[in-house]
Amino acid sequence: MATEQTYVMVKPDGVQRGLCGEIISRFERKGLKIVAMKFMIIKKETAEVHYGEHKGKGFFDSLISFITSGPVLAMVLEGDNAVSVCRNLMGKTNPQESAPGTVRGDFGMVTGMNIIHGSDSTKSAEREISIFFKPEELVSYKRTADVWTYE
Ligand code: IDP
Ligand code: MG
Predict the structure, then answer these.
(1) Which of 86, 103, 117, 129 is catalytic?
(2) Could you confirm whether 117 is annotated as catalytic?
(3) What CATH number did the domain enclosing 43 receive?
(4) Residue 128 phi, psi dihedral angles, 5° rounding
(5) For the chain, which residues score pLDDT lower than 50?
(6) pTM of the model
(7) Range of the domain at 10
(8) CA of 93 to the centre of ligand 2 (A)
(9) What's the total number of domains in the chain?
């Protein structure tokens, strides 16, 4: 089993639209384990580090002002292939192209307000988790439901 951790974040539009509970619930029901969670307003400098790969692109400035415009719900989720499992639950970057049943497919209308972020690789996940969480904030525990989740 390839147990991974991934960084998932409800963006300010998702928080303002009251979707935090719905989104957490989807990941929980899938079988992902919550390892850490934090509600915060991201500082501009931190946002620029988090989205560093997009620096220089046309949408960078609006992305930074959007992601810092209100609180986000940040979390670390764990499970078998958690990175790709979470990306699949999120849907494509453009919500108009995201499949129904995904978070973006069900709740979003435009790319600039696509509700949710999720790491795109285990390398990104490691980097992003370390930006938003201290190692001691990742909670280590046994989840009894795992015996009914994994063979
Ligand atoms: P991802 O969130 O699906 O990984 P990325 O390409 O990494 O997509 O882009 C990061 C975020 O930047 C997107 O989720 C979206 O909010 C924003 N973004 C990406 N491309 C565009 C665009 O063309 N216009 C406006 N915003 C964009
Ligand atoms: Mg990305």
Answers:
(1) 117
(2) yes
(3) 3.30.70.141
(4) -70, -40
(5) none
(6) 0.98
(7) 3-139
(8) 8
(9) 1
